[in-house]
Amino acid sequence: MELFEQEVHLVKRFGALDKVGDYVRHIGDLEERFSEATADAAVLNDEEEKLEWPKSMFLSLTNAGSTLEEYSGFWKGVDGFFRQQKDWMSSSLESLDSEVIDKELGAMKINMVRAAKAFGNIAPDPRNAAFEVKERVEDFRKHANLIECTTATGLQARHFESITSILKADPPITSTSTLREVLDIEGAAAALPELEEVASLATK
């Protein structure tokens, strides 16, 4: 039990974003062990009740469980966002909804601000990780207008021909092009006024 509590305490030192997958797997293992420990504690309490003994409280186990739940939620949320971002980047333009993307980015930013505030000086490594994820969300959100223009409802082949011409894209941008292909085009942001005109025509 004591070893388990020590391992849970070490979760507070997790902070490297390139190890998120490892963190999630490790936390998953700890959650399984917590469930087993909770079940064992319940069995012991049942035995104590039969013997009319005072029930053991297992406060340290309860506290460890609360800590584990907090950090599990944070790291699983970060992992989920990274996976979602990767999925967006590899998805075709026609399959994306810019409003949904912006909404999820906004929610993630709020979650990271709250997490950083909650961790405070108690857990500086996860706090710093939360700030870094927030910055990544803000950086990605800078592409919001470009994403909106190239995923607008009503875009047809002729519109994508215009987009290709405006961006001087090679290979051409089509409805099946990935978001990554668009965002990797140098100077795409500078062409936003022209792209907005194309998107406006497509949605009429």
Which features does this protein show?
204 residues, mainly alpha, 9 helices, 0% strand
Mean pLDDT: 94
- H/E series, N to C? HHHHHHHHH
Biggest sheet layout = none
Q: Share of helix among residues?
A: over 70%
State the total count of DSSP E strands: 0
Radius of gyration: 24 Å
Q: Helix segment count?
A: 9
Protein architecture, described:
The N and C termini lie far apart (65 Å). The radius of gyration is 24 Å and the shape is elongated. It is built from nine helices and no strands. It folds into two domains: 140 residues, no CATH class; 59 residues. With 204 residues, the chain is mainly alpha-helical.
Explain the layout of strands and helices.
Elements: H1 2-10, H2 20-50, H3 59-90, H4 98-119, H5 124-141, H6 144-150, H7 157-167, H8 179-183, H9 192-203
Helix pairs in contact: 1-3, 2-3, 3-4, 4-5, 6-9, 7-9
Summarize the structure.
72% of the residues lie in helices and 0% in strands. With 204 residues, it is an all-alpha fold. The protein folds into 2 domains: 2-141, no CATH class; 145-203.
